[in-house]
């Protein structure tokens, strides 16, 4: 691929000119340029794109790895540096502020991102300190000429303490400010730590375990589409293991790209967190009286749950209508459900009753996988924890309640609706579903969701709703409420 000019875009985001890095190798500089450490440079490009352009690491990093020809251990190292740095960003910035003697936001952005990568290596990897410092200074020499002395001094200051010692010095005392302490120690904004603690009943020990799990690299989960792939056979084919809870789940071993698997390429399987599989399947297994052939996914993009429900529907002679308001996501749903009994509608799910293809009282099963803050998937999307704000909640919860009200209008009497969010925030879960049900103007009963999940699954609480957790179940923090229309 040819070199880009500054300001061109890669994977939908603007990128810096990478031409100066081409024509160099690890053996030494050419034309006076410093040697390029390709994995570290790839990580730098990804972190810079995330922080500068609001890119998403899971979208931009694979493009960078492919363009720079990184595979195997080099790709794995670049991935670890990228995601590790983004997860630990809050704590790293506090440490760099102290080490630099100035607010990290006053440091030139390219130098700041390089320092973040260097500090992560010093505090959270086995990279020797001298290698972490020298390689980061080399990177700064390329992206921020003139700042090498400053970078060297800051990194040597960072290297003077280990991560625990820095936390002890910088975090407020746990006894007097537990939320502030946990936020800095485990690199989450305070408002998110507070929301997690509230959802966990104020248990700070369990909150700590959740924060720790959020900072771990999660395994890739595959969904073996029923009728198209057997999970045991898929596990053998993919070199993974069958999942612990979902009958469709396969855990992939470290390394490799799931997109390269034949089963994913031919749509016998797709990448999907086990928690998402469980909540979608819960809708399908909930007992229902009367007809059961018309299913609805009201917020279907990008299509993972629609793909699973469509495969289940195919086995049961049902048909799924998948609704998506964003055109590009509707196209993703079409791709994800190709060959399944799924009709994709590019429209607003709130138009039930006004849209002829979304009549009221028509559907037997309805999934409302509502847009949310995504706080339940921070281990997979680490940049989200730094982008979301409490001010996002009013608009999101209003949308959630409007979509849930529309879903209840679409549901026939006696039908079942699943309300799902990938967030444990109580405002997006219990408050939204309770308020929407109360204001719906129809008779609605909560169905105990626990029997709809696999027998023996631990930590499901007292019902009728269910909250899954990374530290309890190894899944994203998915919330599930099942409602039956009277």
Instruction: Count the beta strands.
Output: 14
Tell me, briefly, the overall form: globular
N/C terminus separation = 59 Å
Helical run tally: 20
Helix content: 40-55%
Oligomer: single chain
Structural class: alpha/beta
Largest beta-sheet details: 8 strands, mixed
Low-confidence stretches: 1-32
What percentage of amino acids are in beta strands?
Answer: 5-15%
What is the alpha-carbon Rg in Å?
A: 24 Å
Mean pLDDT reading: 92
Account of the 3D structure:
By secondary structure, this protein is of the alpha/beta class. Helix content is 45%, strand content 13%. The chain has 20 helices and 14 strands. The protein has helices at 38-53, 57-67, 72-87, 89-100, 109-124, 129-143, 148-158, 163-170, 178-186, 190-199, 204-214, 231-238, 262-265, 274-285, 304-316, 327-336, 384-387, 393-410, 427-439, 470-473; strands at 9-10, 13-14, 221-224, 241-242, 249-251, 269-271, 294-297, 319-324, 342-346, 363-369, 411-421, 444-447, 466-467, 479-485. Strands 7, 8, 9, 10, 11, 12, 13 and 14 form an eight-stranded mixed β-sheet that branches. It has a four-stranded antiparallel β-sheet with strand order 4-5-3-6, sandwiched between helices. The termini are far apart.
Task: Using brief descriptors, characterize the structure shown.
single chain, four-stranded antiparallel beta sheet, globular, alpha/beta, 20 helices, eight-stranded mixed beta sheet, 486 residues, 14 strands
């Amino acid at each position: 691929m040819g070199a880009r000019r500054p300001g061109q875009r890669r994977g939908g985001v603007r990128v810096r000119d990478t031409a100066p890095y081409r024509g160099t190798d690890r053996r030494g500089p050419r034309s006076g340029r410093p040697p390029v450490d390709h994995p570290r440079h790839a990580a730098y490009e990804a972190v810079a794109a995330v922080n500068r352009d609001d890119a998403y690491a899971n979208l931009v990093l694979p493009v960078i790895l492919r363009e720079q020809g990184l595979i195997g251990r080099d790709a794995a190292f670049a991935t670890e540096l990228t995601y590790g740095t983004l997860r630990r960003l809050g704590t790293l910035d506090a440490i760099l502020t102290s080490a630099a003697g100035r607010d990290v936001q006053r440091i030139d952005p390219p130098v700041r991102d390089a320092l973040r990568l260097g500090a992560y290596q010093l505090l959270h990897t086995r990279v020797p300190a001298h290698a972490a410092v020298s390689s980061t200074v080399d990177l700064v020499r390329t992206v921020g000429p003139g700042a090498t002395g400053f970078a060297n001094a800051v990194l040597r200051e960072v290297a003077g303490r280990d991560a625990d010692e820095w936390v002890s010095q910088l975090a407020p005392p746990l006894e007097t400010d537990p939320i502030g302490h946990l936020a800095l120690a485990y690199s989450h904004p305070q408002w998110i730590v507070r929301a997690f603690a509230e959802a966990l009943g104020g248990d700070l020990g369990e909150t700590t375990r959740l924060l720790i799990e959020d900072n771990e690299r999660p395994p890739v989960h595959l969904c073996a589409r029923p009728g198209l792939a057997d999970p045991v056979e898929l596990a053998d084919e993919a070199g993974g293991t069958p999942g612990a809870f979902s009958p469709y789940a396969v855990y992939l071993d470290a390394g490799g790209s799931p997109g390269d698997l034949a089963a994913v390429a031919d749509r016998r399987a797709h990448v999907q967190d086990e928690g998402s599989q469980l909540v979608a399947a819960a809708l399908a297994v909930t007992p229902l009286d009367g007809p059961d052939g018309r299913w609805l996914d009201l917020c279907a993009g990008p299509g993972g749950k629609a793909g699973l429900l469509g495969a289940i529907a195919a086995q049961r002679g049902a048909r799924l209508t998948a609704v998506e308001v964003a055109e590009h996501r509707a196209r993703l749903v079409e791709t994800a459900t190709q060959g399944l009994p799924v009709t994709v509608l590019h429209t607003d799910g709130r138009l039930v009753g006004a849209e002829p293809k979304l009549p009221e009282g028509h559907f037997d099963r309805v999934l409302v996988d509502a847009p949310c803050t995504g706080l339940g998937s921070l281990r997979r999307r680490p940049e989200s924890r730094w982008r979301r704000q409490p001010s996002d909640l009013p608009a999101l919860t209003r949308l959630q309640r409007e979509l849930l009200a529309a879903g209840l209008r679409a549901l026939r009497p006696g039908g079942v609706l699943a309300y799902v969010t990938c967030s444990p925030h109580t405002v997006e879960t219990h408050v939204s579903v309770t308020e929407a049900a109360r204001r719906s103007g129809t008779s609605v009963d909560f169905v105990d969701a626990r029997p709809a999940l696999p027998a023996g699954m631990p930590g499901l609480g007292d019902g009728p709703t269910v909250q899954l957790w990374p530290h309890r179940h190894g899944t994203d923090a998915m919330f599930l409420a099942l409602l039956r229309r009277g």
